[in-house]
Amino acid sequence: MSVTPEDLIERSIPFVDEIKNRTAGAELETWLNENRGPGSQLWDDLARMVKEGVADGWAANIEVDGPGYRRSRIIEPCERLSWFSITAVYLNSVPVFRGEYHQHPYGEINMVVPLDPGALLRGPRGWQGPGWTSPEPGSHHYPEVVGGSLVALFYLPAGRISYDITAPADYAASDGR
Fold it and tell me: How much of the chain is helix, strand and coil, in % rounded to 5?
């Protein structure tokens, strides 16, 4: 039987209950990678589910900038998820690919699921393979990926993400690692 969006949502509820009172940033990112990273039941379950969702066409299925940059909102902020939303983004890159510049008003908790070995997402503390990034409230960046394709499964407090921000002229371009 195929995994459904509802399966992913149900599996996310205990996770959101764990993180809902934590602030996105370096401390949470470290905790997630040490306690809920690859090899943990949570990470492995969510990774399997979102990969199946991409393959089955319900996760990251709306093109943003061609077939190599797609996203979909799995669920809008709601009480059952403590007012978090869940979004899946598919990024494919060889070499570096840059998505839309955006801001995280309340931060972001972002699960990185490589589909190709060696695929990396640039987080606020450098390049991340399988694991987590957690940009702090008010942070802004281009999502960048190198080394192939991956899915970013992100949890947004109050569903807040802002695309009405302009990148600073001196924003540091990535060299791909």
Answer: 25, 30, 45
- The CATH number of whichever domain residue 34 belongs to comes to 2.60.120.10
DSSP three-state, residue 136: coil
DSSP string across 96-116: -EE---EEETT--EEEEEESS
3-state secondary structure of 81: helix
Query: Does 59 fall in a domain?
Result: yes
- Confirm whether 73 is domain-assigned: yes
Q: Does the pTM of the predicted model rise above 0.70?
A: yes
Q: Is residue 148 part of a domain?
A: yes
pLDDT of residue 1: 80
Q: Is the residue at 171 inside a domain?
A: no
pLDDT tens digits, residue range 161-170?
777 878 777 7
Residue 122: its pLDDT value, please?
A: 87
